[in-house]
Amino acid sequence: PAQMASGFAELTGHDFLRINTATPGLRILNFDPPVVTVDDFLTAAQCDALIEAARASGEMKVSAVGGAANVNIRTSRTVTLNIPALTEHPTKKAILDAAEALLPELKGLGASKNAFKSPTSSSPFSFELPQVAHYSGGEYFKTHEDAFPEAIAQEKGYQRRATVLVYLNDVAEGGATKFDQIGIEVRPKKGQCLLFFPGTQASMPDARTLHTACEAVPGHEKWISQLWVSGYAGKHTPEGIPPGPGDRAARRAAEKAAKKNSKHGVSRGTK
Widest CA span of the chain, in angstroms? Predict the structure, then answer.
């Protein structure tokens, strides 16, 4: 219903990044935290071409996850789309264009000179370089968050605000993306995008988006493309609190109270 779509767009715009709810093929899987899928985000031909180019590049390497505690958390192989064979690949541009259409605040970012640079106060969003990942049968990425811990986000000056994951092939058995905290499981569907928000507008990681890349059953494989949208986490970012039920209502109540006080000439300061 239109009213639900409008409310969902308002929610995402307030705490995350506004979603264009008029996007064809969009389906809301979870309201808060927002999780959506978009059918036909890429065409079958675009998916096939990117898989073939990544496979032929000879650059697929075992995925690295930092930290000793992360040993054996991930067994897939990845390649970043900045090597000569892939940096100008048409499907890379198609992913960026589709992401901008889905998230209107990013409009024109892909053509900007700052598209892949660290976000700043004057250029608050950027893309991390898109990747292609390949999971052979039995390979996985155990439960993890995409967002940076708060201290690291502040050190870097940016936080991962959106994950745009595109399934490049159908997987007959296994290979689902499972959100452990909210009980949602998404099976790979060729050309479909899965969008969620690992970090909030306040640059806080949202632990509700913990997710697992489940094993593809032996004899099957999974190909995905993943794109992260980063947002500036500098001084203009409001002080964050961990998100969750009630936080949004409390913030909105505080905002209304502040506006009311302002109208009545109430101010705060030192005596």
Answer: 73
Residue 80, both tokens: 């970043």
Question: Which residues is 35 bridged to in the sheet?
Answer: 30, 196
CA distances from 42 to 91, 98, 214 (A): 8, 8, 22
Dihedral angle computed from the Cα positions of residues 246, 248, 251 and 255, in that order, rounded to the nearest 10 degrees: -130
Note the pLDDT tens digit of each residue in 78-133. Answer: 999 999 999 999 999 999 999 999 999 999 999 999 999 999 999 999 999 999 99
Residue 194 has φ and ψ, to the nearest 5°, of -115, 120
Q: What is the pLDDT of residues 192-250, one digit of tens each?
A: 999 999 999 999 999 999 999 998 889 999 999 999 999 999 864 444 455 444 444 54
Contact 161, 124 (CB under 8 A): no
Q: What is the pTM of this model?
A: 0.84
φ/ψ of 249, rounded to 5, equals -60, -40
